[in-house]
Amino acid sequence: MHNKDSKRQCSKIEVRTKLNRIIFFVRLGTKNNQIVQVKLKMSKMKTIHSFSEQATELLILSTSLDPKDVFKLFSVCNICNLVKNFYSLDFSEQEKIQLDYELQHYELDVVKAPDFQNLSTLAELCQKLTETGKSNIYPLIDRLIRLVLTLPVTTATTERAFSAMKIIKTRFRNKMEDEFLADCMIVYIEKEIASKFTSEMIIDDFSSMKHRRASLKISKS
């Protein structure tokens, strides 16, 4: 029973991690491009499936902090479950107990305070807590709000990365290794940033890594 709970907890933490940063791990050790494409499709389907229940639960519980409509969705129980199920590594056991009491005072103080009645987003709430100094009175709630704000709002990044993989990993590049593929994908996805790098900048950076017998820089005469 303990192992089941541990596995479930690890699974939920993994979902939360996936939502905060997209991690791609694809095995490309086959010469048959069709098999690679099938594996990529299966990998994508599994990722979407793993997001369904737990990611939905994460987003639903997160809305309990939303100040929209005068904190209509506020729930002490849901917020405690949010920390217990998805942010257990960010709070100690003592802090989890303390959070329950902090939320009860927060409900009487902040939720019903006139200054907080017209807020509509979590970002505005976080800013207002800082401005009024209540972030120091409710440090655990402030920490949780900041953690929730790091969640991406869409899966556009995921879709863009899979599209990039389809373009980069062609049948002419079926022997490309994982590390090189990951590097190519970063350059392709972040092309706006990569376009700002010049050849001279790259040469200078490569040259400064270690001392070389021959100079990589072309001397200007």
UniProtKB/TrEMBL annotation:
> Coiled-coil intervals in this record?
none
Q: What Gene Ontology molecular function terms does this protein carry? A: protein dimerization activity
SUPFAM superfamilies for this protein: Ribonuclease H-like
Q: Where is the HAT C-terminal dimerisation domain?
A: 133-192
One Pfam family from the UniProt entry?
Dimer_Tnp_hAT
InterPro entries given for it? Answer: AtLOH3-like (IPR055298), HATC_C_dom (IPR008906), RNaseH-like_sf (IPR012337)
In its UniProt entry, what is this protein called? HAT C-terminal dimerisation domain-containing protein
Q: From which organism does this entry originate?
A: Arachis hypogaea
